[in-house]
Amino acid sequence: MININGLDNLHKIVVMNPKGGCGKTTLATNLASLYAERGPTPTLVDCDPQGFSMRWLEKRPATRPTVHGIEAYTSGEPLAARVKPESRALIFDLPAAIPNEQLQNYTYAADSILIPIMPSAVDVYSATRFIADMLVDQQLDRREQKLVIVANRVRSNTKSYQMLRSFLASLDIPMIAVLRDSQNYVHAIAQGIGLCELPSYRTKDDIQQIDAIYTWLGRQRAKVRIFPSTEQRQGMIADIAFRRAQDRDFQGGDPLTDWAEAERELNETLFSSADG
Ligand SMILES: Nc1ncnc2c1ncn2[C@@H]1O[C@H](COP(=O)(O)OP(=O)(O)OP(=O)(O)O)[C@@H](O)[C@H]1O
Ligand SMILES: [Mg+2]
Predict the structure, then answer these.
(1) The pTM is what?
(2) Which atom of ligand 1 is nearest to the CA of 154?
(3) Scanning 7, 37, 43, 137, which has its CA 20 to 30 A from the CA of 221?
(4) Residue 105 parent element (H or E)
(5) Tens of pLDDT along 74-90?
(6) Does residue 11's CB lie within 6 angstroms of at least one atom of ligand 1?
(7) 6 part of a folded domain
């Protein structure tokens, strides 16, 4: 099982939808290319044994900015040990079929969840069930606002697109971008690049939508909880302990002994409050 807990300080972006072929890999690879171009350095985490994201990465020209890749479906070290230190954004490309307990792990630990949906009756029906499951069974808290929709392969103003819009409005879930049905996506994926790396005259109708996703993700990133490392934490405790010992004029007369005592007290307080 792929466990995405414990990847603190990293922006965990999950692209999911159990409907096959709705555009998960297309969206994930485009996000990876976008982050490579604009930062922070991304890692594309392929969770699908079909390995399409990794194949995209293999085709990526060496001259393009770096996207790291992790084949998460191959057994190996925990993900945290496989992420390169310079990478701050993890983009998870999920397979269509995911066991329920694994879905829970993604839903809980993700900072941002993007669901690509195609505007067809079948896709909207299956998305309704999936999103309802997430809200009810997975207890996804809507107030966290971490789940959004990206409409994909849209030919504007068709009946099915209108149906998708009204369905989302009824659920009160934002649709942050509308990606056209365009050969640009097919050409980009075949070359190991993203839409933002194609010549701009070819993508002028699409790039605004890609920008909208980047902007939303930027806001989500600001919410990622930052935990200090163990060393940083011990350093902070030592500083506070020193001030505490100084304020009480170094009880017992020996500054070093009282500093150590103040540090022990602080650790005890923090440890017991974490327990309780
Ligand atoms: N906006 C788009 N315009 C044109 N073609 C698209 C678009 N998005 C995806 N496609 C094409 O649709 C097909 C399925 O897309 P993709 O592989 O991204 O779906 P997926 O959800 O990852 O599928 P799976 O569930 O099998 O993992 C691909 O051939 C892709 O090139
Ligand atoms: Mg895929």
Answers:
(1) 0.84
(2) 1
(3) 137
(4) helix 100-109
(5) 877 888 889 998 999 99
(6) no
(7) no
